[in-house]
Amino acid sequence: KLTSLALQPAITPKLVQGRVRLKCTYSRPSSKPPLQYVVVWSRLSTPGRKEQIQRDTTLQLFSYIEMNGVNLRLGDTVFCTVTAFTRDAPEQQSLPEESKGFYAGIKFLPESLQIAEDGKEHVLTILSTVPIACPEREDSCKITLQLSTEDLGKNSQSTGPPDIVLSACQVDLLRAPCSESSCAAATLTVTAVTDFAQDGNRISRIRAEPVGQRDLLWRAYRPKDVKVTVRDLPTGNCYSFTDPHIITFDGW
C-alpha cells in the first residue's frame, strides 16, 4: 500500500492570462511507479467546516483553480488535499494530505491595535495576498481602498466622533511580485485623538472598501474591519483662584 508519501501540498497565488488563480503544487516520491493524483479544492464555509469546490485527477504535479468571484471569492480560506494512486491499482490510494489554509484577500498587519491617547503614530500595513490584475486596455494595476473610521464606544455601540485619525483616507495597492504572502502592499499611520476628556477606554474600527472597481472579484468584496482599542490617559489641568493665583499645566 502507498500509505503516506509526504507529498507536501502548498498553495501559491498566480496571475494567468490576466486572471487570478491559485496553484496547488506537491512533490513526487522518487522510488515509486508512475502515479496519478486526485486534487480536491475546498474552502472554509464556516469555522471547522469545509466545502468542496473542485476535484481534479491529473498526472501533473500541480493543479489550478480560478478565483472567479462566484464559487471562490476574496475573503475565502482555501485548502487543497492531494491523494496519490497508481494506474495499475487505483483502489490502493495514499493517505490524503492537506495543504495549509491560504487566505485570499486583504490582510491588515497588525490585525488589531491597542493604542493610547499619547499622540504617537502607529503603522498599519495593508496587503493583498493575491495578485492584482490590470483592467483591459489600462496599465494601472492597482486597487484603491477607501478608508473610514467609526467609534464603537465602550460597548460596541456608536456614540460619537471616532477616537482615532488616519494619515490617509485612500490608499492604492500597487501590483508587485508576490513574496511572503504579499502581492501588493501599502502603509498608513493611526493616531489616537487626544480629546482632553475622561471618557474611559474606547473601541474604534477602521473599514476599507475597494472603490471604482469593474472587476467582479473586487467589486463585491469588503475586507474585515480592524479593531482599535484606545486607552484613555489623564490630561493636565490648570486652575485660577482668588487674587488670582494660577497653577499651570506643569504645576507652577
Automatic annotation (TrEMBL):
Signal found in the keyword field: yes
Keyword Signal: yes
Coiled-coil stretches noted in the UniProt entry, renumbered to this chain: none
GO MF terms held by the record: signaling receptor binding
UniProt-listed InterPro entries: Dev_Signal_Modulators, Ig_VWDE
Domain VWDE-like Ig-like: 2-104
Entries under PANTHER family matching the protein: EGF-LIKE-DOMAIN, MULTIPLE 7, 8, VON WILLEBRAND FACTOR D AND EGF DOMAIN-CONTAINING PROTEIN
Protein's recorded name: VWDE protein
Species of origin: Lophotis ruficrista
Gene encoding the protein: Vwde_1
